[in-house]
Amino acid sequence: MKSINYYNNLGNKLQLSEDKNNIIKSIAVFEYALTKYPYSAILYANCSLSYRKMKQFNKSLIYAKNAAEITGYEFGYCRILENILKDIKIHNEKYTGDIKKDIEKIWKLCEKNGHIKDWRQRSSHMIKYLTAKPWWDKSFFEKETKLLEDNYDIIKKELEFLIKNDYFKTKDSENLTDEDKGWLKFRFFQKGKTFVENHKLCPNTSKIINQIKNATTNVYGQIQFSKLEPGTHIKEHCAYTNTRVRIHLGMIIPKNVKIRSGNIDNTWTEGKCIYLDDSFIHEVWHDGDQDRYIFMVDVWHPELNTIYKRYNSLNTDSEKDLYMKLLKTKTSNDIKIYKLSTKPDNKPKTGDVVKYHYRCIIPETGVEIDSSYKKNKPYEYKIDSFSVIKGINIVLKNINYGETITAIIPSELAYGETGIPGLIPKNTDLCFYINLLN
């Protein structure tokens, strides 16, 4: 009997051609395969996708439900079901249930089976151990809050300049508002990209932004002014990831505006911050008669409080490379952390005496605090003697003789809560550039 992979590959090839006749053939392949493998979630999911491409959404829904039930409503299959139900609504296909309530039921099953912490939190990229709550309080963001609220008048003055000269041009690109209007943005930073000309227009706001390293190093983050026109409704949506919290500084706030996250309503106050976890589904209404403006700053989730944790929360190598660039460390673009060598195994063992050159940098400042190169002499160390910090011992045991690497040592494996007075602040991650000599 042919394998599941055989039928999947055959069906997918037909499905990807986008030719209607081939998509119909792919359905036949998947349905035949399901007579042989009736408990294959991936076959049900692929068959669902083929019916979805044919715009037969109710049929697609049946196969997607089977896939979800087999997996115990895993996150990815719940997302498929939600999207099919939304397609049914968009295309006005006949449906006997309540689409909104049925979507909620799906996500509640996902939560019940332990795949997510809260059914209202639906980001695609989830770090499961992070605390999940739709709204946070000031105590987690004291430094950022003080900086933003103390400089409210300065920021507002430059916002008024932008309003007066009609600089709000960037529209909603996610079709979250009716007829793609009513929600406009003025961006300073987005997912690693700095909008240099916008910083020049608002030099004082730019200086404030550059003091918030918790935001300017956030690979998934944005920093921007947000304008919402009267009568606008931003539809229910959520962010891609749960690794950030979105700080809103109220700038110009008319009456009758509100934001709902996790079924909890909130609003803004001029000169004050609120703290939204936008991995929860949320939406916004503006029933007032004047434009609403806020200053939006995305920062790292409070529990991602070291470079090591932030780096390892990122989803792809390109995001990790970008993060290192944002930290402004003097390291190569292809940096890997604790990445084992592809060379034949030739690593030090317990008791081996090794020699290595190193440079030690504080990543957030780029300041070099120590270097064997400056001493013109490599450092000598006996593996597992622990006369160096624990992180260095770990790195040396995981690289080959003759190899040069860059590694981030988390504070708990470096100098921890004490640091080195006058040299290394407490709770500081360190960046080491190491050449293990032959």
Description:
The protein has 438 residues and is of the alpha+beta class. Helices cover 36% and strands 21% of the residues. It has helices at 4-16, 20-36, 41-53, 57-71, 75-90, 99-112, 142-150, 152-164, 196-201, 203-209, 213-216, 307-313, 317-327, 372-375, 390-396, and strands at residues 135-136, 170-171, 183-190, 193-194, 222-228, 233-237, 244-252, 257-261, 264-266, 273-276, 282-286, 292-300, 353-362, 367-371, 379-382, 404-409, 430-436. Strands 1, 2, 3, 4, 5, 7, 10 and 12 form an eight-stranded antiparallel beta sheet that branches. Strands 13, 14, 15, 16 and 17 form a five-stranded antiparallel beta sheet that branches. The chain contains 15 helices and 17 strands. It has three domains: 4-112, Serine Threonine Protein Phosphatase 5, Tetratricopeptide repeat (Alpha Horseshoe); 135-300, B-lactam Antibiotic, Isopenicillin N Synthase, Chain (Jelly Rolls, Sandwich), CATH 2.60.120.330; 307-436, Roll (Chitinase A, domain 3).
